[in-house]
Every structure is written in C-alpha cells, then in structure tokens.
Design a protein that fits this description.
Layout lengths: L2 H9 L9 E5 L3 H12 L3 E5 L14 E3 L1 H5 L4 E4 L13 H4 L3 E4 L13 H8 L4 E4 L6 H5 L8 E6 L2 H13 L3 E4 L6 H6 L9 H29 L11 H32 L8 H8 L1 H20 L5 H17 L7 H27 L2 H4 L4 H27 L16 H5 L1 H13 L2 H11 L6 H15 L1
Parallel strand pairs: 1-2, 1-4, 2-3, 4-5, 5-6, 7-8
Antiparallel strand pairs: 6-7
Helix pairs in contact: 9-10, 10-12, 10-16, 10-18, 12-14, 14-16
Length: 472
C-alpha cells in the first residue's frame, strides 16, 4: 500500500467505530476546521452558535443549534471563541455544570491578562471542568491533515478524568498530547504560540553584536588604515573580503561557545562537590541554547565556504595574479616553489575541509528527525567527542592559516591584531581547560559526582531534613 493511500485512509471517517458527541461553541475558522477533523475521526459534532442557521461553510455532517441546546447534547464542549466573548457563558452556568470545557483561545500579547484565559473561564463557570488544549494547533494544520505541522498539543487541567478525555480526543485526531499539569500551566501554554524563536534570541543577538564589532574592526584595519597611510582605496573589501574574514571568525567563536558552558559546569560541579545544586540562571539559559548557537555557527561556516569559492573569479584577485606574472616576466625571474608554504597551504585547506565536514555532521545529527533515531550514547558521541574534534580541527585550521604572521609586526596595524587572532582566544581557552579536565585526578571525581557522589553528603542530609520539616 502506498503512502498516499494510507494518508487518505487516516483522513477518512471511521463510521464503524462511532465516537461520542462533542459540542463546539463557535463557527469561526478554527471551530469549523476542528469540527471537520473530528467528524473525519468518527465523532458526532454539534455546533453551538448565536445563529442556528446552517451555513455552507459548516461541515455537512454537523448539526448547528443554539448554545443551550448544543451544550445539552455533549459532555465535552470546546470553546472556540475569543476571551472577550466569554460573558455569554454565565447564563449557561447551570447547563454547563459538570461538563468538560476545553479552552482553545490565544491572546494577542504575552501575559496580556493577569490570569490565563482558561483560569478566567473556570472563574466564569465554576461548576465546569476546564481543560486547556489545542491552542498550539492552527486551523490550517487541521485542514491540511496535520501532515506538515507540529503534532504536539499541550494539555493542562485540574481534573484528571476530564484531562484524560481531552487527551483521548487529541490522539484520535492523530496528534500527540503532552500533559503540562494543572490549570496553573495554562498561562505558559497560552504564551507559547506568541513567542518568536524563544531559544534563538540570545544566539541571534550575540551573533549580531559580534558581527557588528568585527565588521568595524576589519574596516579599520583593512580599509581605513591603508587609505590613511598608503593612500590606497580598498573600500570594495566591504563586499567580499571583510565578510569572508567575519564569517570564519564568528563560526569558530560560536562553536567554542557551544562547549564553553559544559566546561564551566564541570568546574562548578568540581568546586561544589555535588550535582544536586542548580547552576546559575545565566549558565542554565546558556546551556539550553547550545544547539541554536551551533546551528548559527554552521551557517557562518557555510557562508565562509561560499565566499572562499568565489575568490578565484574576483576582479581584484585576477588583477593581482596577472600583475605578479607580468612582474616576473619583466624582471626575467621566476619565483621558486616554497615547499614550506605549500605544506602550510595544503594543511590549512585540509584541516578546513575536515572541520567543515564534521561541522555539517554535527548540524545533521541535531535535527529532530535524526536525533530521534539514535540512542543517547550515539548522540553524545557525535555531539561531544566529534564536537570537540571539530573544534580542534577548526582551531588548527586558523592557527595554520596564521603561520608566521603571528610574529610579524606588519600584522598589527595600529597595534590591532588580525581578527582571526582574536577568534582563537575562546576556543584555545576551551580546549586547554578541557584538556586539563580529562586528567584522571579531575576526571574521576567529576564522573563520580555526575553519578550521584557528593563530597559533603551532610549538606544534602541537612537540606532533606529542612525540606521534610517544612512539608510537615
């Protein structure tokens, strides 16, 4: 059986196993899409509306009644309307008593109201069992069969039985429910769709800040300095040369910043002698966005590869090569091959190629579709062991590129070193500290700490005593 036919079967109504009746208050886009999807999944759907007239937009197998009549026909009622229109539910409080009300609404702003919409609904209808769900699923996703959208649905509520009934509906629709606990979690669930790349904020802002800094840094060294002291106009460097200096610098720094919090966490655990104390908030947040930092670093590394590939076709490069050839012809002198430089050049390119290959491998394994198909040991081997190998290769690539220029006075224009020299600071610190941490005298106690051993167990015993005493 092919894939298309299986999809069609999943979307076809299950007439042999008819499910219970579900009421939906609201005939807007989301209410209609959810009703259509539920009918396809075998549910009987009754719409509650201000107007009991059937519209061509309403699924043909659904019934449209007034709010009071529709509520009496179902134990589960989905409130697919906005919060500002909840007031009509107050006169229906007696009819809604004991029924499961599913709040699917979202707000326009994060923390727009003091309490969540679901909690507000529970206050309006105190006798009902309110559950928050479906607010992370769009009408488009339901109409497209949820094949191209996230299948995860956050669910929360105070009544376990009501929450289980809603999660059964979620599963029947081909979605994946995720229990977030009591109704107190509703505000967090409602804020989730309003967040714009929450885990990407720090990596993007950091990247923009570093890009701005290194752009002006390279502008001063490579454009302004030659213009002031040599009267040469290299302003065209802004288009290719300076970006090709910035991209590898940021790729190396961001890659090092992926592994720096792990090193800092190891030092903190060794200092404290336990793993049962929280890291500082800044370190916690840093560790949570390491994946995003790595992907941004991979993007800069990919741009560096593309910029490097176009170097031979640049007008400036072709002019410089032809000038050198003409100069040698006029002087009737050919420069001999410098094998040392040849070795350095080939080694620098080989290290860069290997480093970028492993960089791409790290990026691929961080994708959910790939990481979900490997076990924890395999994932840790790739992200940790191969990750550090990638950092070593990329750092070596930069060191070989520098060669003897580290000691050349001409490399320090206005006493400013090359940008790649600054890029080596963070990765070298990470690699040196990591090298120290793998010494048996440090690695052994660190492994024991991460397995639960504590240097001062009486601290934990005292904490447990305080916790138990406060609980009483």
């Amino acid at each position: 059986m092919n894939k298309n036919s299986s999809n069609k079967m999943a979307l076809s109504p299950n007439t042999s196993n008819k499910r219970e009746t579900v009421c939906i208050f609201g005939t807007g886009d989301f209410g209609r899409a959810l009703g259509h999807k539920m009918i396809q999944s075998g549910y009987t759907v009754v719409f509650g509306s201000r107007s009991a007239q059937t519209s061509s937009l309403i699924p043909k197998d659904a019934e449209v009644l007034s709010h009071a009549e529709a509520a009496q026909k179902a134990a589960i009622i989905i409130i697919a309307i906005q919060r500002q229109h909840y007031n009509f539910l107050t006169p229906l409080a007696e009819i809604l008593h004991g029924k499961v009300l599913v709040d699917v609404s979202n707000n326009l702003k994060i923390n727009q109201y003091p309490e969540s919409n679901a909690e507000y609904l529970a206050q309006l209808v105190p006798g009902a069992k309110v559950v928050k769900a479906f607010n992370t699923v769009s009408a488009w996703a339901l109409q497209s069969g949820t094949l191209d959208a996230s299948r995860q649905v956050f669910v929360c509520g105070d009544d376990m039985e009501a929450k289980q009934m809603v999660m059964d509906i979620v599963r029947a629709l081909g979605l994946t429910p995720l229990d977030k606990g009591s109704l107190l979690a509703a505000q967090e669930i409602e804020n989730y769709p309003l967040q714009l790349f929450p885990m990407w904020k720090f990596p993007i802002l950091l990247s923009l800040g570093l890009t701005t800094f290194f752009f002006f840094y390279c502008l001063i060294r490579d454009v302004i300095y030659p213009y002031v002291y040599e009267n040469k106009d290299f302003s065209f460097f802004i288009v290719i040369s300076i970006p090709n200096r910035i991209c590898p610098v940021l790729a190396l720094i961001l890659l090092a910043l992926v592994y720096l919090p792990g090193v800092l966490a190891a030092i903190i655990q060794l200092y404290r002698g336990t793993k049962y104390r929280r890291f500082p908030d800044w370190l916690d947040k840093w560790m949570l966005c390491r994946k995003q930092l790595g992907l941004v670093a991979l993007a800069f590394a990919s741009l560096h590869v593309l910029y490097t590939l176009v170097i031979p076709i640049r007008s400036f490069v072709r002019w410089r090569i032809s000038s050198r050839i003409v100069s040698q012809a006029l002087n009737n002198k050919t420069e001999p091959l410098n094998t040392t430089n040849a070795w350095l050049s080939d080694s620098y390119l080989a290290l860069g190629i290997l480093g970028f290959f492993l960089f791409v491998l790290l990026g691929i394994t961080s994708l959910p579709s790939v990481s979900n198909n490997v076990n924890w040991r395999e994932f840790r081997f790739v992200q940790s062991k191969l990750g550090y190998l990638t950092l070593i290769l990329c750092t070596a690539h930069t060191l070989v590129y520098g060669g003897k220029r580290f000691l050349s006075p001409s490399s320090y224009r206005w006493y400013l070193p090359n940008a790649y020299m600054l890029a080596l600071i963070v990765p070298c610190i990470v690699l040196v500290v990591k090298f120290v941490l793998i010494f048996p005298c440090l690695d052994k106690p660190l492994t024991q700490i991460r397995q639960g051993w504590e240097r001062k167990p009486q601290y934990s015993e005292q904490s447990n005593y305080i916790i138990n005493k406060s609980a009483v």
